[in-house]
Structures are given as structure tokens and as C-alpha cells.
Amino acid sequence: MEEASSPLSQPKKRGRPKGSKKVAAEDREISSPKMRDRVTAAGNKKAAVVDDKYNNWKFVVPILYDWLANHNLVWPSLSCRWGPLLEQSKNKSRQRLYLSEQTDGSVPNTLVIATCDVVKPKVAAAEHISQFNEETRSPFVKKYKTIIHPGEVNRIRELPQNKNIVATHTDCPEVLIWDIEAQPNRHALLGAAVSHADLVLTGHADNAEFALSMCPTEPYVLSGGKDKLVVLWSIHDHISTLVGESNTTNSSGSIVKTSDNASIGPRGIFEGHTDTVEDVQFCPTSTQEFCSVGDDSCLILWDARVGTNPITKVEKAHNADVHCVDWSPHDANYILTGSADHSVCMFDRRNLVSDGVGSPVHKFEEHKAPVLCVQWCPDKPSVFGSSAEDGCVNIWDYEQVGQKIERGTRSANYAQGLFFKHCGHRDKVVDFHWNAYDPWTVVSVSDDVECSSGGGTLQIWRMSDLIYRPRDEVLSELEAFKAHVASCGPRASS
User: What is the C-alpha to C-alpha distance for residues 203 and 441, in angstroms, rounded to an integer?
Assistant: First the structure.
């Protein structure tokens, strides 16, 4: 991704381009009638393919899913995250959900705090979960609070040590920290003043739009940006006294007004990338070890205890920009990366490089477009997910790589390690998040700007446990069910 002279003028490479649907339509105008006809025909063909894929998926929803909720978004969201568990009942649990509204400027951009009712496993009736209207909102998702955000919300990350604290990235150099409960609920009306972040983290010299991570063990924040830097902060001394502090520090060219906010500088600035840093991730067991990926196709490992230079730099981790990274919470040796080359790589940090370039344990290839998000499953160590611009969330199990798995006559069509594809989105899936409180439940969000409906789609889904449970256990249960069905049939008269 090429750099521009102004830190705020460069368009983002992911998500909805700046400007309204009207602008997007004007950009597609073709002066020649013949060319217009060709463009229309190509668009109709693509739409027909998307419709077929979607309809085929919806037909098998009652078979493949234990539960699914579809929530139409007027405006797309580039990020979605599960928040804390609020309450539980016999058939459902209530939980926080974080998302955003990326608008065209007619109304403000917002950070949305919602409540989500998550139906518990084996409660929803199979015949009901596919009976939804994709153009309506789900009764399971309700807005709790709206924060008027100073710019588009590109990333949301929650602080594990304090359930009320989240961080956001927008089109500016700063990281914004929000106390969700302390922030007032706002109405997103044209001309409304932006909400003031409770804490502003400074240190980047250029826009930091996507790369953002919160440490699992301590209140540390990590960020990467167009300045090719990775920046580390500690907010340990600030999270209990966020509201009410003030500081007049203001970063040059920033869209964030910090006159009413606390502002703190970095604990460390780390140099090693030669292009935009796209994602960062802490080692799950350390506040000082972390990794980063970027448009230089590199994966870099860092250790703040020994300085600001890379510990290990993996050149050519992929053959294109690397968009995302995740560090296994189960085994700190394993790191996932996702790339514009459509692939996901799993690296072992004990053996990262061979002949001077990246040497992954395995390369997972099934996506048909750039990969935007990867994340390990919190429930099973060998399982992880990936989402991409092809509109799919793929679920993988690296323990199945190399195994011969019977899938009938279509077995040759499946990539090694792939055992589930969620195809419920019509356009690029920009983010997804496993639910730590309800294993195997996932929230995913797509930016549907290129679809006729526009806006976005949020889906909360849980695959059937018959898909991921041990084979012998599943077969035993099915045999018992078969016997039960047979016993319920008509009996011969004596």
C-alpha cells in the first residue's frame, strides 16, 4: 500500500471507501452505452452467483447450525466484539456486544454498545432458525448505548482486566480508550458534537487504523500504523481514574480533540517494518512479548525487555500484504497469519524461517479472496477461524491436516484441515469473534456495500456439535437416536 504525503488523505485498503453510496455509484458511471450494458450484465451475473450461494447456504441452515441470528445493519461495521456476560437464565444468556456504524457523513459515525441474547445449545428449534428476513433487525440484538465517535471505527478491542473499558482505532494516529458505563448515551444526529474519549494514547507519527491489541494479563495496549511503527502503552495507572482527567496535549493533524481528555505517551516504540503495520498481537502469557504483520509481507516478533529492535523478522511470511495475526492462547509456539494472497499460515516460533524466508508449519488454502481476520478457537486448541473478502468464515482444525476424512464423493474438493464453512454473508466478512463465554458461538460482520441492499450484516451463529465432536461419540448418539425413532413407530398388532 503506497503512502501519501498527508496522514489523513490516504484511503483505507479495507472496508467501505470514504464517501456515500451516491459517490460510489457515480464512480461506476460509464459514458459509453455499450460499456454500461457490459458493466450491468457483469454485475447481474455476479449478483446471481451470490444469490445462488446464499440460497444454497440458507437451505442447509437447519442441518448445519444449532442456532443462528441474522441482524441487518443500516450502516456497515468494520469490527465486532463480544463483551462481558451480563446474566444467565435456563434457555439463554445475555451478553454485551460491541459494533459500530460507518456512515457516509449524513449522520455521525458511532461506537455501538448492544445487548445480545444468546440462545443456549440445543434449545432453538431447527425449523425456526432459518426463518429470518435478512433485511430486518434481529430480536436478539438491541442497542444499549451509542457513542458518537470522532471518525470511523476501524477496530474495537476490549480490555480483559476491566469489563467497562474498550479501545478503538480510527483514521488518526491516536488510540482512543472508552469507559463504556461512564460515557453518556448519545443520539447520532447530523451536527452533533463527538463524544470525548476518556483516555487518548499518543505516539504514532501517522495514521494507525487497524492494528490494535489488548494484553490478556495486564492493562497494556499495542498498536501499529502507517508510520511502520509498533507502539506499546501501559494504562495500568489510568483505568480506575479515566473520567474527569484532562490534558491539553494534542497530536498534530489529529481529528481527536484531546483538550478535555487525559493523554499519555508510549512505553515503547518499535521499529522494524518497512511498510504499514496491519495487525499486532500480544503473546498470551506475556506483557513484553508480541508480534506484528504488515504490508511488507513480514511477521516480526518483539520482546520489550531486550530493546526496540525485532527479536525475529520473518521475511516473505506470505507472497503479499499480511493483514492479520493471532497468537495461540493454548500453545504459545503457534502463530496464525492471514494475507492478501488468500491463504492462512500457521507458524511455529521455534522454527520460523527456512532459507531466509518464512517457513510455516502448514499453509491453509481455501479462501478465494484476501483474508481479513484470523482467530484461534477458545475451546479447542487445534481449531481456528478465518474470514475473507470472499464472504466466508472458514473453520479449520490443524490436527486434521494429513488425515483421510470420508466426505463422500466430494472429499477431493476440500482443503486439508477445513471442516466447516459459514457462507451466510453476501459480501466481505471484515471481522469475526469467538465467544469465550459460550464456546463455538461466533459473531461475524460483513460490509455489504457492493450488494444491492448496502449496509452490513451481523450474524451470531453456532454450528451443530455433531460437526466438531469426536466421531465415535457422534455415531453412538446417532445410533441411540435411530433406536429411539424406531421405538416410536407404529407397532404390529398381535
Answer: 36
